[in-house]
Queue: 3 jobs
Job 1
Amino acid sequence: MKRLLAFALLLVLGLAAAAQTAANKKDMAAAKEVEALERQRFEAQVKKDYAFLEKVFADDLVYTHSNGKQNGKTDYLQSIRDGKSVYDKIDVEALNVRAYNDGKAAVVNGTITIYQPNKPDGTPNVAHLKYVVVQVKDAKKGWQVVLWQSQKQPEAKS
């Protein structure tokens, strides 16, 4: 009887470990996929690739800019179309993705530098930002950004 119980316990523990390993693999694969999508998203913002941005931003997106202003998906995309949000270049300096729930949700945090057109006086318009994004995987639409928040970082002193 003790051997049977011990065998049953080992079997249950083995199955649990296998399930955890499968979940970890799903999370790791999801994290890699989301990291690539983040880089594509920033590139799409520079290139004004509205088709990609429409797909990657959830309809209920909440974007809190570094100045505290909030936009939804429609407002934010319109700000790019209207030239209120213009990006000459976006450099991704650090990117960390953690996936959860068997690869169905991800939290991203990173550091970027945004280059925008020069200010009216001709000085460069550069913003160093830390940001956080939450993405969820929709069964039909794929990965979508549902929350995005950024914070300006102080300029590096020489």
Job 2
Amino acid sequence: MVPLSEHPAFLLAQLGFHVGARFADALEPLGISPRHNGMLRLLQAYDGQTQQQLGEALHIHRNVMVGLVDDLEKRGLVERRRHPSDRRAYAVHLLPAGLDLLRRIEPIARGLDDTVTGGLDPAERATLLKLLGKLTTDAGLTPGVHPGLTQGTGTEE
């Protein structure tokens, strides 16, 4: 029987769990979870779109989108405004407090990247990034969207 340490899927899962837990711990003092960070980053890229447009483009279930936006809105990080061309819809906008929070998170994320890949030289790190990108594409994952963001109600921590 092949040891778990020789199964790429196990090693990726082990490392993913470890990194995810460390990132969650690093975000805890800021009062947010990785899911909040993911949604804020998506809103930064797609500011002013409707919840439905965001959900469809990012393959995020409507209920998840609503729950996350509700939570971020309560925290004063985003707001819903009437959509300029569709009176039935609301556009979601990142507020200055949300953008400020993203700026505070960026060095945390970079530091985690550096810690995780600290044993690699720059060429190895570039190769790892390229290979991981290929694996995520081959798996049919949406670029830049964590699978955990697309499931659940959006309010779990």
Job 3
Amino acid sequence: MALLKQAIPNALKTAKRGTAAFRAALRDEPERVKDVYLNNGLSTMSATDHNCYDEHSAFLIKVEGGRFRLMK
């Protein structure tokens, strides 16, 4: 969802909602978004890597006071 939250506005800049061009833009846009913070690391998707994580992007979090906190 975090990837789509960033991808949808960008896809709407290039195509009209409901069109084939919009669906193509929505499919391709997550591959252009860099360093999206997710609950288990930084995600940077590419055309060849849809796993989105590498060794520098993983981190641990804990729930403290009802909020996610980065563990050091």
